Amino acid sequence: MSFEMQDLVDRLYAALGTPVTLTDRQDRMLAYSSQPLDKTDKVRQQSVLGRHSDEATRPVNDFARHVQSTTRLPADPAAGRLERVIVPLRTQGHIAGLLYLIDPDRRVTDEALERFADEFEAVARQIELVRMPRSTSQAAVRSLLSTNADERQIAVEELKGCLGSPADRPSRTVVLAPPGRDHSMPFWSRVFGARSPWSEIDGLYVYLVTEDLDPDGVASRVRFAGGSGAVSGVAIGIGGSSPGLAEAYLSYRTALRALQLAKSGLTGSNVAAWDTMGSWRTLLSLDRSAAEASIDPRVRLLVASEDGTLLRMLRSYLEREKDNDELATEFHMHRTTLYARFRRLQDKYGLSWEHPEDRLATILGLRITLLYAGS
């Protein structure tokens, strides 16, 4: 029985004096408060003792299946049933569980329940996590990487069992962006380890890797898998290491940033690891709108006016990725023509790439523009 579930029913009983039970949508008993004989009824006693639906409890359960909001179920003396309040617990728009509060004295009001709204939602999320089989831990991974701290903490407890290790075991998040919907999850589970929990989030496949955490080791496994052709067209971002499951969401954030670089093709690889991305980390720590707003006005005009091929050629030139003869050959022009074109660009946009500040401003603007091209 989960502590948070038990804590909720105990707190409700202490505050309202009404015996409480909590079930999931399949009528399985999850937690119950103190049940004094003078405050309960035959139906409640049977549900607690039996912990499942029978002839006495079935009418209540059948009624509850149609409940969409807090509802009173009238008493039925012939069936030995006192009046009770049924409270559905929702998460992400659907009902995960139901609270039953025996309340013949009508102590339970909407105002009284409102004080427990946050706890209702937290327990609903926990019910969803407990409901899933541990071998299919996608819901727990999604919760672990969410922006909600309470949801993450619940997921940590659930995933400890999936990983078979303590919550403080280091991990690294790997995010894959497949070109279509036909990529085999069993294949990637072999690459990252059968015990690596995974989930699908916003069309991306997300793995928590807990073995061989060195980013080069993870990247090597991915590239080795490429021999089968399985990574063709797949962009892969490898996040920074997190000291424990509770911090895995930070690794996930860096994995998403690394994925953006991998998708851009600017490094010549479809795999990018946060730990080895160098100065790209600084640019990707800004959100897209902030990064684009930071571009020098002259460079912003340049990238808006010139074609993508010229921008890629200019970035290679300014960052000295290749010598000028090699660059001219790649873009099918004479070296003199290359220099002349770059001189015209400087004159046209008021830039001087001999000046370190102008050169850096142009490199940053080109990187930001090409990083998000096509996104």
Percent of residues in beta strands: 15-25%
User: Which shape, going by the Cα principal axes?
Assistant: elongated
Instruction: Please bin the fraction of helical residues.
Output: 40-55%
Give the terminus-to-terminus CA distance.
46 Å
Residue ranges: pLDDT <50 for 5 or more in a row?
Answer: none
Biggest pleated sheet: 5 strands, antiparallel
CA gyration radius, whole angstroms: 29 Å
CATH topology (level 3) name of the largest domain = Alpha-Beta Plaits
The level-1 CATH class of the largest domain: Alpha Beta
Textual characterization of the structure:
- The protein is an alpha+beta fold and 375 residues long.
- The chain has 3 domains: 3-131, GAF domain (Beta-Lactamase, 2-Layer Sandwich); 138-284, Alpha-Beta Plaits (2-Layer Sandwich); 288-371.
- 47% of the residues lie in helices and 15% in strands.
- The protein is built from 17 helices and 10 strands.
- A hairpin with a 2-residue loop joins strand 7 and strand 8.
- Helix 5 (117-131) packs parallel to helix 7 and helix 14 (308-318) packs across helix 17.
- The protein starts with a helix and ends with a helix.
- The model has no long low-confidence stretch (mean pLDDT 85).
- Belongs to the CdaR family.
- It holds the Pfam family GGDEF_2.
- This is PucR C-terminal helix-turn-helix domain-containing protein.
